TrEMBL record:
Role played: Necessary for efficient RNA polymerase transcription elongation past template-encoded arresting sites. The arresting sites in DNA have the property of trapping a certain fraction of elongating RNA polymerases that pass through, resulting in locked ternary complexes. Cleavage of the nascent transcript by cleavage factors such as GreA or GreB allows the resumption of elongation from the new 3'terminus. GreB releases sequences of up to 9 nucleotides in length.
BP GO annotations: DNA-templated transcription elongation; regulation of DNA-templated transcription elongation
Domain Transcription elongation factor GreA/GreB C-terminal: 81-155
Listed name of the protein: Transcription elongation factor GreB
Source organism (scientific name): Pseudomonas monteilii
Coiled coil (residue ranges): none
Name of encoding gene: greB
Amino acid sequence: MSTNIITTEGHEALKKELDHLWRVYRPEITQKVAWAASLGDRSENADYQYNKKLLREIDRRVRYLRKRLEDVKVVAYSPEQEGKVFFGAWVEIENDEGETMKFRIVGYDEIYGRNDYISIDSPMARALLKKEEGDEVVVHTPTGEATWYVSSISYGQGVSTG
């Protein structure tokens, strides 16, 4: 089960997606279904079949988004977070081999399509919570333990590399 928290930006993105699906995309597909249905025999009408399926997928996503938006708690930035890793932080880490990674710790609903976001529920995020710059972090992964060092922590509003 995932943690039901989300950043302010993530919450806005879900609301925007829901609004677009409901006000723009769904009416567009509904029109296509009506047009395809008007052509007659629906059993062999590929346009009708495809768009009807698409409509079901849109409706499923709309239901999911409405439910999630009710269930998630928006966690906004707080000045007390400065200097330590908490939800919403951009964190840069480095290992002994000199490899570096930079990512933002966000809610489960925010990670899709972003390779610079990780879920608060991931082993890496859990290990980093409450750490400060310079701290050593041991991450327990399915392949064993990995040691990282916290290089930088920021909460820059609007910092985005995606």
